[in-house]
Structure prediction request, 492 residues.
Amino acid sequence: MASQGPPPTQGDPAGVRFEAYPLAPVGTFLGIACITTGLRIYWRIRPTWRIGADDYTLVFALVLTIVWYGIDVAMYHYGRGIEGFMPDPWTMGPLIVADGVLWVWGLNVIRISAALLLLRLKDSLPWKLALWTVITVQACMLVVGTTMHLVMCQPISARWAPTPTAKCIPVPNFMIYGYVYSGLTIASDFTISILPITFIRTLRRPFYEKFLIGCLMTAGMGATGIAIARLLLIMGYLGKGGARINALQDFLWGMELTIGVLATSLPTLKAPVHGLLQSWGVLRSTSSSSDMSPDSFLDDLTNGPHVENQMRQWDSLSGIRLEYAPNHNLRLRLGENAVSFEQRLRWAIQVAETIKFIHDAGVIHGDLTCANIFLDANLNARVADFAGSSIDGSPLLIVVTESHEFPGPLLSTRADLFALGSVLYEITTGQPPYQGLKDTEIRARYLEHDFPDTTSLRAIGSVIEKCWHGKYPEARAVIEALKGTPPNSIQS
Prediction:
């Protein structure tokens, strides 16, 4: 929506240059945005490919922002930032139109990406309705904004060259459009920024961790502030006309784009940022625990003392203590050693009982695989890697392994039970489901409910199938089914 503006009525001497004011800070933030987006994509493809619609739209928005910045550089090259200089209208005019269209596309695609990211976090109907409303509004704003830039004057060349037969939207009407568009922009930015606070405040996490998550997920408030400043500029409160105002306008436009990309990238970097700050000593590690035992219902579990040994209390916060496991993870053990069927069944029951315990405590693991199950000195299975798990409905901050990913809402007990089925399959066969297939192929098969054949696995194959097809309402039913499984149903 950049424009040259009316001739200056007062201000700077002719020849003063202002190109450094918008180009330097916007270019710096754009460089940072490229880095954070690259890191986000890196974390989404490792250890497995987990790219979604929010990632594709963010990369598209970043490309639009880079192209927008390139056009801005070209405009300043042709004299936009020189006070009193009149650039060639046939050179500058098309650049201004392209600059405005790209800005509209970039800004709205960024918000669509942010809303798609937030859709991953919760599965409640009000949450989804709010975010799909935001996405719909952004799509409409994209269409309307693009149309207004292209039909403001007919023919379009009348925007930069005198055309007696031109038909243009009256300036007062276009200003009203600008006010309404800016108001919707501010409301959208604020909504996307404020929504995460509704669940961050309920997290049962240390204050410093909630503060970190809050900072990462509400960084879009910066874009809201920029949008307010841009509205004040449109209304004339920050000055009118001249190269200085053009530079201020381009600075605000560019910062809104780059901060939007940054704000959309940062939430996915919570885990690495948290680890980095802990390594620097900025955040403390909550590794201490007391010896307070969990509720007595653990006595009903076959391996209750084993599960109880992992559960401790940190102050008033429930937590999980992960002790030293010298026998590596279950995946390595299955691949390197001959394991008896009795031992495999014991591991299966231990894992299922642990999943029941954490579900009863309001925890969704989110990334249950044999690589995240470790063996202690007595070869007990210990479920680990709760760094990105959900507590009391908080968002999952994990990258799900494709062969264990439920083809539905990830923030659910059913998703954990689906992953449990894949874990049982690996415990039984020694390899994860569809080993050797690409992640995209596995995802496509799961979406069609096409799972590996388990008929040769006898009784435990039925348990696995029911986990995959959502036949078990809770982990307790899986435990009962496993306890009723003949030992010879586990291959050795």
About this structure: The chain has two domains: 20-279, 296-489. The longest strand covers residues 311-314.
